[in-house]
Amino acid sequence: MRSGAIPAFALACCLAAVLVPAGAGAADDTDFVTLVAWMSGAFSSAAQAEADSAFQDIRLRMKPIWTSRDDGAWFYVEQAVAWAQDKPYRQRVYRVRDLGGGRFASETYTLPDDAAAAGAWRLDQPLQEIGPDDLAAREGCVVYLERRADGVFAGGTRGRECTSSLRGATWASTEIEIGPGGMTSWDRGWNDAGGQVWGSEHGGYVFLRQ
């Protein structure tokens, strides 16, 4: 860690006022609309990377797509390091559904052609040339969310359901917190013995809304 750097947990505490709206906690019927709005946009971990060298400067774009559909809210999602934003290292489609009872599910899909979709977040209506039937679902990798008393949506994947073969992993986990000012995401890969083989060992990435 660089001299004077702020540990990840301390940075998260400092950002709480940004992530949590004043007076949050009162449940209402607009939670799904709020969740979708908070997930939409451009986000950056630059502040965290500047404070703690254990983290990289990552840019995250989450662009609503297929907005006329009534089977959930769909997003094109792209992640890239700040110095190579034209070469994203992760591209996905998410579908967010309201499960009722204050519970929500974010499903993950892979694209038929990552290269063709790169940079699609810049378009007014991305991915119009494909549809849900062209995607491949990442079975078991659904992120389940609930709104906490402080107003933040929080949750993650379940157990070892999300399989992964990356860097010797057999399964992966994701933990998420989403607020109006950004989100914290912690993705990790694990082997059969429960040892971590990829992902941050210092806490989740803090993405602030740009």
What does this 3D model show about the protein?
Helices cover 14% and strands 37% of the residues. Mean pLDDT is 88; it is low at 1-28. It starts with 7 loop residues before the first helix and ends with a strand. It has a single domain (8-20, 28-209), classed as CpcT/CpeT domain (Lipocalin, Beta Barrel), CATH 2.40.128. Strand 9 (171-179) and strand 10 (182-190) form a beta hairpin. Strands 1-2-3-4-5-7-8-9-10-12 form a ten-stranded antiparallel β-barrel. The chain has helices at 8-14, 16-19, 31-39, 46-51, 114-117, and strands at 41-44, 58-65, 73-81, 90-100, 103-110, 136-137, 143-147, 153-156, 171-179, 182-190, 196-199, 205-209. It is mainly β and 210 residues long. The longest helix has 9 residues, at 31-39. The chain is built from five helices and twelve strands.
SSE blueprint:
Elements: H1 8-14, H2 16-19, H3 31-39, E1 41-44, H4 46-51, E2 58-65, E3 73-81, E4 90-100, E5 103-110, H5 114-117, E6 136-137, E7 143-147, E8 153-156, E9 171-179, E10 182-190, E11 196-199, E12 205-209
Antiparallel strand pairs: 1-2, 1-12, 2-3, 3-4, 4-5, 5-6, 5-7, 7-8, 8-9, 9-10, 10-11, 10-12
CATH top level label: Mainly Beta
Q: CATH homologous superfamily, by name?
A: CpcT/CpeT domain
The strand line-up of the biggest sheet is: 1-2-3-4-5-7-8-9-10-12
- CATH architecture name: Beta Barrel
Characterize the largest beta sheet: strand count, sense, and whether it forms a barrel: 10 strands, antiparallel, barrel
Query: What is the mean predicted local confidence, pLDDT?
Result: 88
User: Within the CATH hierarchy, at the fold level, what is the topology?
Assistant: Lipocalin
Number of strands: 12
Order of helices and strands: HHHEHEEEEHEEEEEEE
Query: Which residue ranges are poorly predicted, with pLDDT under 50 across at least 5 consecutive positions?
Result: 1-28
Rg result: 17 Å
